[in-house]
Amino acid sequence: MAIRGIAHRGYPLKYPENTMVGFQAALEFQFSHVELDVQLTKDGIPVVIHDPTVNRTTNGEGTVKSYTLAELRKLDAGLGERIPTLEEALLFLRDRVCIDLELKQTGNLYPGLEEAVLEVVRQTGTESQVILTSFDHYSVERIRKLDAHIQLGLIMFGASPAVFPYMKQLNARALSVRHLYLTSEYIERCAEEGVQLMAWTPDDEPSMLKLAAYPDILVCTNNLEGWANVHRQGRTATV
Hints:
This protein is about 30% helix and about 20% strand. By secondary structure, the protein is an alpha/beta fold. The longest helix is centred in the middle third of the chain and has 11 residues, at about 115-125.
């Protein structure tokens, strides 16, 4: 049975985050979506890693953008895994799952990130599988200027009604919000606006059970087994 949900960075509760082994675990759980994060190397290659530094998730130190791809390849991302390139991850996931691709742009941290990501998406033939998202909404705007049709989404910490006209302006359909801010009223508003709501990142069972009352929400979680159990049980509650 397929699990309607987003595997956050693969399966980080059991495997190194944003690595191929974690993505493989998400596929084995039959999640409908996988979320991954993209930064840019010193030589302009999009790579899959969450933090702007390699300190937390590898045995190295320093910023991602201070490393060339060849230098990043020498780092251990856990269990002997290497930091994947975006191309490697997309080719692995192609035709198997939808991909929530978060651009880790922060102001002008990565000049050219949007162009580089779009190029890899097009080269791998995954345009119809990806949703390009970011906390940096200027980054999302740049993507839209570069591509009129690719799926876009905004990420926000809290819930805001002001976002809906902006999303129409961008022709962005997905909205990712921290789950603690979601109310039944806001969930209904998203449905009325034709917005695909994504809730991040409920990992405990009570939070998951609340969200299970709203099957249209895409739950983004680190706890794949927990959400799979709730999803399969079909249990419901109210926010």
